[in-house]
Design a protein that fits this description.
By secondary structure, this protein is mainly α. It has a domain of 70 residues. It is 58% helix and 0% strand. Helix 2 runs antiparallel to helix 3 and helix 3 runs antiparallel to helix 4.
Length: 101
């Protein structure tokens, strides 16, 4: 029973972290289903590296391709634009500048 629960939990965790790109690559025949499952079962922070290594070993990516890729995948989140505020300048009247210290 505990083994069944552990398997179900593992499948749930895998489904939560599986990159849809893996399914596309399997459907196109670029990688095998077992290779995709191995990558999906790996910690999320290692999945991209494993996929990159696999694609390079299959000749899909060259060393030049890998070198040109950024270390971290792009995220869909974009920071909101910064808003610049200026403090209003105090204008002194000609009278104030002549009569006040």
């Amino acid at each position: 029973m505990a083994l069944l629960a552990g398997t179900a939990l593992s499948s749930f965790a895998q489904a939560q972290t599986k990159d849809p790109l893996l399914d596309v690559l399997v459907k196109k025949g670029v990688i095998a289903k077992g290779e995709a499952e191995h990558i999906a079962a790996s910690p999320p922070d290692q999945q991209r590296s494993l996929l990159t290594q696999l694609l390079q070993s299959k000749g899909v990516l060259t060393a030049q391709d890998v070198k040109g890729m950024s270390a971290e995948p792009a995220t869909a989140y974009a920071a909101p634009p910064a808003v610049m505020c200026r403090r209003p300048q105090q204008r002194q009247s000609l009278w104030h500048s002549r009569h006040l210290p």
